[in-house]
Hints:
This protein is mainly alpha-helical. Helix content is 71%, strand content 3%.
Amino acid sequence: MALAPIRPREPAHQACEHAIRSAILRGELVAGEKLPPERELAVQLGVSRLTLRSALAMLDAAGLITVRHGSGYVVQDYVHAGGPDLLAGLTELAGERGDLPPIAADLLRVRRHLAHAALEHLVEHVPTAAAVRAVTVAIDAMAATGPDLVDLARADLAVLAAVLDATRSPVLRLCLNPITAVVSSNAALRAVIYREPAQNVAGWRLLAAWLGHPRAADLGRMLDVLAARDAASVSALKQRNRTSSRRER
């Protein structure tokens, strides 16, 4: 396929990378397909070959393409070669196709299981009093946040960051970051996850109280609450999709 010239609102190499990345995630460039030669591809995108090479290096690092000696750049199977940084693009694409609810359900499921791992860790490694105070301060800040969904998402992330900091586990923190970033940055997801912010705050306060005396016996009940909230969010997202579809008819 031929790619359209980019009109960057960001640095040209990033806009170039995003254009090719989007074509791969949309299936317009499929696994095993060779990209056009550099000179031709640079002309298609309207960029210099130096800019294109910077973009191709980023795509190679992301596992979207690979360089084969004598064959040039070849599209990779991103599901097997890519990383969690691709989730944002896949989520955005699902939203454009009206297929966001199943993607959201899986994202929330992964987030929930990672939360379970973090809570198990906190049972085994009881957080310090200072760490619990940091969580409480972050929750208070969220409770004082206005109705703007972007601000609420940012405050919610600050609470989650404080909880993960309490684990002192870089592995858990790194694993949760991409999922949380996608959930919080997508406008449609924000609208359903923070539709009742008082409940979000109340849930965090219950967790903060648990952190004072973390017990493994409480984990099942806490995870059931998370699962119910996630199910309600997905249900609300489906309803938004149905409403939007009716309006478009």
